[in-house]
Amino acid sequence: MLKRLSWKRLALELIFFCLPALLIGIFVGYLPWCLLISVLTALTWNFYNQLRLSDWLWLERSMTPPRGYGNWESLFYGLHQMQLRNRKRRRELALLIKRFRSGAGSLPDAVVIITVDGHILWCNQLAQQLLEFRWPEDNGQHILNLLRYPEFNDYISQQEFLWPLTLQLNNSHHVEFRVMPYSAGQWLLVARDVTQMIQLESTRRIFFANVNHELRTPLTVLQGYLEMMHDQPLERAIQNKILVTMQEQTKRMDVLVKQLLMLSRIEAAPTTINMNEVVDIPIILQELQHEIAAIKTATNNRHHQITFHVDPQLKILGNKDQLSSAISNLVYNAINHTPAGTKIEIHWQLTSQGAQFQINDNGRGIAAEHLPRLTERFYRVDDARSRETGGNGLGLAIVKHTLNHHDSYLDILALARISPLFCPNG
């Protein structure tokens, strides 16, 4: 078993070289010359092994060390063991880096490692997509050369990272940047796409502003009439007129609240509905036809020529409440937003694409620029006409969410009011 070098082993090796020369010098004479020759022999032996060590370290690619003798055998073996340990550590380090990069690549955020002076050392796949970095081409690039935004420049230059920085990039994404210490002389920059969060927050603000507006208007009317009736006596005819108006405003609020509740229930429902319920669409349309005939006077006395073309055997699987609400909203949308005398045709039939619900009328239609936003909540093409007809801009939003749950779609054509609602055939 090999042992490590020590001063005792070195002394023994020196004695090994000098002892024969000492004995020969004593018996033969010329002791100094014999000792000099033995020392030169030891130096030559050591210089020779040094050259072998240098060739092995710098020229040869083999991991196997040269064969040594004496103390040099221990030295060669020790260096060989050190190389093996270093190679093992390098493999472990490479595996650790690979695991880190794999883990960082699966993170939902863009991760960039930079030096304290801003040069990029590494970035994950999401950083290449979100921040449009190129790897490994951008290795060593200064991050301010790639993200050219004054706010980001100030954020990095001031090095005050207690709070995140949110920017809208040129690709229209809103990104939140956070910087934290990573290791000596390095920072970890984490970028998160918050576009959807900002859009949802904007939608929430708009939604509450619209709800506030829609409820405040009828409440203001009711409050004004109540104060009028409380402050002074009114004639019977004026009172009746006021009561009719108050009833209309109360009905308007009731419809708004019911539609908000319906929309909330649809949005909160699972995206995949249990398709075990057989929905009898012909019965729903028959009930709707009787309802329209009974309340013609409630539509500002605007009479329409409404005809139904219904396949009485065509039923589908889905959610009855949601489908009934969607169909009712589409029908009343056609009735309320077309002038008197309009012809309205309602179709329920089987096509090659599935079950199709379609409404045709010969009204003035909708301009093409409004079509992409028709299913937004509270969006109305004409606010004045919507107030006149009692519309609140929630009907088509309910239709859109209902169809999403039923793997269907809504198609609205400009200038020719055709609203096909496709449902999977059951």
From TrEMBL:
Question: Do the record's keywords include Metal-binding?
Answer: no
What is this enzyme's class at the first EC digit?
A: transferase
Any one Gene Ontology cellular component term annotated for this protein? plasma membrane
Quote the Pfam families the UniProt record gives.
Answer: HATPase_c, HisKA, PAS, PhoR
Q: Which GO terms describe its molecular function?
A: ATP binding; phosphoprotein phosphatase activity; phosphorelay sensor kinase activity
Q: Tell me, in one coarse class, where this protein mainly resides.
A: membrane
Histidine kinase domain: residues covered: 210-412
Which GO biological process entries does UniProt record here?
Answer: cellular response to phosphate starvation; phosphate ion transport; regulation of DNA-templated transcription
Q: Where are its TM segments located?
A: 12-33
Keywords (alphabetical) are: ATP-binding, Cell membrane, Kinase, Membrane, Nucleotide-binding, Phosphate transport, Phosphoprotein, Transferase, Transmembrane, Transmembrane helix, Transport, Two-component regulatory system
Enzyme Commission designation: 2.7.13.3
Q: Which InterPro entries match?
A: BphY/WalK/GraS-like, HATPase_C_sf, HATPase_dom, His_kinase_dom, HisK_dim/P_dom, HisK_dim/P_sf, PAS, PAS-like_dom_sf
Catalytic reactions on record: ATP + protein L-histidine = ADP + protein N-phospho-L-histidine
Q: Which PANTHER family match?
A: PHOSPHATE REGULON SENSOR PROTEIN PHOR
Function (record text): Member of the two-component regulatory system PhoR/PhoB involved in the phosphate regulon genes expression. PhoR may function as a membrane-associated protein kinase that phosphorylates PhoB in response to environmental signals.
Q: What is this protein called?
A: Phosphate regulon sensor protein PhoR
Q: Which organism is it from?
A: Candidatus Regiella insecticola LSR1
